[in-house]
Structure formats: C-alpha cells, structure tokens
Amino acid sequence: MRGLICGPKLAACGIVLSMWGVIMLGMLGIFFTTHSAVLIEDVPLGEEDLMPDPNPPQKIYDLYNKVGYNCFIAAAIYILFGAFSCCQMRLNKQKEYLVQ
Prior knowledge:
The protein is built from 2 helices and no strands. The chain is mostly helical. Keywords: Membrane, Transmembrane, Transmembrane helix.
C-alpha cells in the first residue's frame, strides 16, 4: 500500500505520545506566557539579563514569552506528528480490509 510507513502499533504509540506532548507543551506554553514564578529556573537567563536596567523585569518577561512561544511551536509540531500517525492508522486499517 502506497504511503504506509509504520505499522499499527507504532502509529498508535505515535498518537498517544503526540496527545501527551500537545497537552504538556500547551500547558507549559500557557504558564510561561503568564510568567509563572515557579518556572524561573527554566528561563535562559544570562549575566546581561541581570545587570542594572531601568526596567529589569521586562527583559525577564520577554524571555518568558520567548520560551512560551517555543512551547507552542513544539506543540504544533506534535499536532502534525499526531495527524501523521492518524493517517498511518487509517492506511493500516485499509490494508487490513484489502487483505480480507
């Protein structure tokens, strides 16, 4: 069958992993864009970000937003991976019907 790359078990595993990735990264993206203080250790702060500045929190908030947008982009990639896995599941089911 044309376009069939993986079997049904690998496709099901891909669907489960992509659902988990979308949920987890979506929530992380929300928490980063709302500037959650718990996630400060995951923000890539450098020495120049901690230097005296007229508006010190703004640089840190910009970094929070940047990491949050990266999480949303990664969640979108997981959505694409999940759609690919769903297509593989359908192709595997079609192959089963053709064999019978």
